Amino acid sequence: MAIAKAERLMNLALCLLGTRRPLSKRELRESIEAYLEAGSDDSFNRMFERDKDDLRELGLVIETVENLDGEVGYLARRDSNRLPPVTLDAEEAAALGLAAKVWQQARLAGAASGALQKLRAAGLPEDVDPYGAHGALEPRIPVHEVAFEPLMLACRDRRPVVFDYRKATAARPEPRNVEPWALECWRGHWYLAGWDRDRGAERVFRLSRITGKVRTRGSRYTAPVPDVVTVRETVASWAGENADRSALIRLRTGAGYPLRAKAGSVRELGDGWDELEIPYGHGLDAWLVEFGPDVVVLEPAELRADVVDRLRAVAKG
């Protein structure tokens, strides 16, 4: 069905762009096979009006002209639908090249490289290498999560989604009904910010903890989308990045490198353990649980108790 509609829209666009005079509905119906197969005039009229609106949403300028006999015709003038020449200097081309190179490991790689080819066809100078100016830079944003693409499209189209999500402290995933706002990569992980309908509050979800398929819903958003979505700041506060206190933990030698990167001090204890002083803020207990038996909280006492409670909850399932 999607392929048939895309073909029908393409044929309609070609007819409207290729004509030198306005074409009536009757003439368009006789020119496009899909319209000829419409069961009735009402069915054709509904199909044509939807297609015309879809083309206008895609940016095609369609004019409606009424002739002397009162018959309405349609056309899309080439001068009204022609983009201006694309002109990029070397620095702009390099920036676009780097942006496309970022997505080489994601499913957007094909679209990114295709965009560069279109820029070449539109007039990007052949002697400008979009990669060469900054060849030493190797930007990468890895996207391995299957949920990334459907969530990206849902954010763009403002479509609510439903997915199963496993919290760090839970043994089994739970369904979440979310109005997605934005995706952001922070410290090698992708996060989704949005409105959790069931909890009636803003929430941030790590994509690696989404299990199964992301399913879209046709309903409208119920909560306003903020002008600025601070995904990174929210996750940072949960991870203790903005903490003004410290916690003392024991960490198994050779494990927990993200914790070592945050540590203010590291002291070898021997017998395969190190002692670390790390920032302590909201959500640190949930993060420490992810390291399992490689971490032991020494102080403060409330952090140790929170970690123990979370581990017991996981053990109970």
Structure description:
The longest helix has 17 residues, at 2-18. The protein is 37% helix and 24% strand. The strands form three sheets. The protein has a five-stranded antiparallel β-sheet with strand order 7-6-5-4-8. Strand 6 and strand 7 form a beta hairpin. The protein has 317 residues and is α+β, with helices and mostly antiparallel strands. The two termini are 44 Å apart. Helix 1 packs across helix 4 and helix 5 runs antiparallel to helix 6. It contains eleven helices and twelve strands. Residues 133-137 have low confidence and may be disordered.
For this entry, give a set of tags:
single chain, 317 residues, alpha+beta, 5-stranded antiparallel beta sheet
Query: Ends: how far apart?
Result: 44 Å
**What characteristic shape results from the CA principal axes?**
elongated
Strand order of the largest sheet: 7-6-5-4-8
Approximately how much helix is present in the residues?
A: 25-40%
Radius of gyration: 28 Å
**Helical run tally:** 11
Secondary-structure element pattern, one letter each: HEHHHEEHHHEEEEEHEHEEHEH
Strand content: 15-25%
Structural class from helices and strands?
alpha+beta
**How can the largest sheet be summarized?**
5 strands, antiparallel
Low-confidence stretches: 133-137
Report the count of strand segments: 12
Mean pLDDT: 80
List the helices and strands and how they pair.
Blueprint: H1 2-18, E1 23-24, H2 25-31, H3 33-36, H4 41-57, E2 63-66, E3 72-75, H5 90-102, H6 109-121, H7 148-157, E4 161-165, E5 174-186, E6 189-196, E7 201-206, E8 210-216, H8 231-238, E9 245-252, H9 257-262, E10 265-270, E11 273-280, H10 284-289, E12 295-299, H11 301-316
Antiparallel strand pairs: 1-3, 2-3, 4-5, 4-8, 5-6, 6-7, 9-11, 9-12, 10-11
Helix pairs in contact: 1-4, 5-6
